Amino acid sequence: MKKIEAIIRTNKYEDVKKALHEIDIDFFTWWDVTGQGNDTKHKTEIYRGTVRDTSYISRRSLSIVVRDINLQKTIDCLLNAARTGEVGDGKIFVTDVELSYRIRTGESGDESLYNRD
Fold first, then answer.
1. b/e map of 49-83 (b: 16 or more CB within 10 Å)?
2. pLDDT tens digits along 65-115
3. How far apart are CA 26 and CA 90, in angstroms?
4. C-alpha span between 14 and 69 (Å, rounded)
5. Which residues pair with 61 in a beta bridge?
6. 110: which DSSP letter?
């Protein structure tokens, strides 16, 4: 099993979600995050009389655990659906998952994941 952490542009989330559903990856967790990247410098702008720090960028982070057999198709899906070709499209990180459990049934390992394919 692998855990995929993807940080994507917030405005690409719906495209990514739709693409994941099309490849039968229907369970994942997401949250809104703020960070800094190579394209951000410490700068401010004034909007309606309020000074805002624009050196931070808003992104959406997704956490997806998949069986090894579904890893590459999930990565390819993320790469295609989240890409704009511009700086700041995001990152994908993959780590090993040693064990997982489904709380409701007590199933463990691959059997505890959401899809049986």
1. eeeeeeeebebbbbebbbbeebeeebbebbeebbe
2. 999 999 999 999 999 999 999 888 999 999 999 999 999 999 999 888 875
3. 21
4. 25
5. 7, 31
6. G
d(C-alpha 5, C-alpha 64), whole Å: 7
Give the tens place of pLDDT for each residue, 8-43: 999 999 999 999 999 999 899 999 998 876 665 666
Q: Kindly state whether residue 91 falls inside one of the protein's structural domains.
A: yes
Total structural domains within the chain: 1
> Which residue range(s) make up the domain with 76?
2-33+59-112
DSSP 29-95: EEEEEEE--TT--S-EEEETTEEEE-SSEEEEEEEEEE-GGGHHHHHHHHHHHH--SSTT-EEEEEE
Q: Residues 65, 5, 60, 83: what is their CA dihedral angle, to the nearest 10 degrees?
A: -110
Q: Residue 15: which CATH number?
A: 3.30.70.120
